Amino acid sequence: MENDIEELLRCNIDMVCDEEESMLIVGRQVRNAHHGRSDLTAVDNNGNIVLIEIKRDRKDIESRKEAFEFQAIRYAASYATIENPEDLVNKIYAPYIEKYRTEFENEPLTSTDLGNRKLTEFLHVNEAQANFNKNQKIILVASEFNEQTLSAVAWLNSNGVIISCYKLIPYKINRDVYINVEKVLPLNDYNDYYVDFFEKTTALKTRKKTITQKPTKD
């Protein structure tokens, strides 16, 4: 289920990290002012706020009224309003720590103080303090993507939007379940992912050829 994938990534976010990339999870099911809920929220080692949106499979993507990538873009736009690390802690990270307090050190610190300390340490270690939330990044996760989503993501990437697609494909072997992680986008060349008008163009060419063909003699 989607909730299972969400929990798996919350505890193992490195599954969708590139080489030399790291992320700190700071939120789960964060609600914005218009009651939209983002699945997971993180900060990466470049100081970007990262939105991770999850759908179970292609059927789940296509059954939604709103496009997968557009939903993520709306949520990411909300994160652009975060002004500084303290703002992120107060609005998102502190409530997350409060919810999962047993997973953090047993210290006499408030969730806000602990959040400020952990986020400051993460940004300092990665020398990302000056770049905090200069950009927002989106990661889409599903076991399979439809062509329209991949086409849109390829176009967004080529126009400067930082967005990635990862396939998490489960395999059951005996009683164990294994997850194969495959990064689909971004790539160096996006042309293969664009949904074009090939079928219509072909039909028009065929029709024109038929019309202009000279009749054969008996």
TrEMBL record:
This is DUF91 domain-containing protein. It comes from Metabacillus rhizosphaerae. InterPro entries: tRNA_endonuc-like_dom_sf. Gene3D superfamilies: 3.40.1350.10. The lineage of its organism: Bacteria, Bacillati, Bacillota, Bacilli, Bacillales.
